[in-house]
Amino acid sequence: MFHSLPSIWIHAIWSTRDRNPFILPPIEKAVHQFLACKFEETGCPVRIINGMPDHVHCLFRQNPLKSISDVIKQVKGSSSQWINTQGMLPEKFAWQKGYAVYSVGASAMEWIQHYIQEQKIHHLKKTYREEFNHFLRMHGLDNELIA
User: Fold this and answer.
1) Nearest to 36 by CA among 95, 79, 94
2) Which pLDDT belongs to residue 119?
3) Residue by residue, what is the 3-state secondary structure of 34-80?
4) Beta carbons of 143 and 132 less than 8 angstroms apart
5) 10 Å Cβ neighbour count for 9?
6) How far apart are CA 88 and CA 79, in angstroms?
7) Nearest to 42 by CA among 72, 11, 85, 5
């Protein structure tokens, strides 16, 4: 008998290299759409993608046949290559090497989706570093990891 695997939703966050503000309004929508397409190609349906000029938040359902690291590597790699080949920026674009991922339970889905949707408003009060540290604490990670 076939048993379907449970859906695991992932909230991923990563920034541009050196947190350069590359993802400005003229290219933001196209970059987010490209990221969504790449997630979909890996079998990871996207619920929402949004962010700021120096980072993105993605909420997607994890493909149980792929590792999160493989999915993120493919999405980040193909998107940075695409941004550079499209000539969207006067200088070379790159993402930072790392990323953060958190699993999202059913009870938190609406809150996370709203949080991602409201990034522009949220960041009027909180920097990327403050936000990142907040997520580390919220998920019970050791304060020694907070930079």
Assistant:
1) 79
2) 87
3) HHHHHHHHCCCCEEEEEEECCEEEEEEECCCCCCHHHHHHHHHHHHH
4) no
5) 20
6) 12
7) 72
**Nearest residue to 45 (alpha-carbon basis) of 62, 30, 26, 33:** 62
CA distance 22 to 47: 23
Structural domains in the chain, sorted by start: 9-145 (3.30.70.1290)
Question: Do residues 62 and 70 touch, judged by C-beta distance below 8 A?
Answer: no
Q: What phi and psi values does residue 42 have, to the nearest 5 degrees?
A: -90, 5
Q: Which two tokens stand for residue 60?
A: 């997607």
Query: What tens digit of pLDDT does each residue of 81-120 get?
Result: 999 999 999 999 999 999 999 999 989 999 999 999 998 8
pTM of the model: 0.83
Tokens of 136: 């580390």
Amino acid found at 59: L
pLDDT digits (tens, 9 = 90+) for 28-47: 999 999 999 999 999 999 99
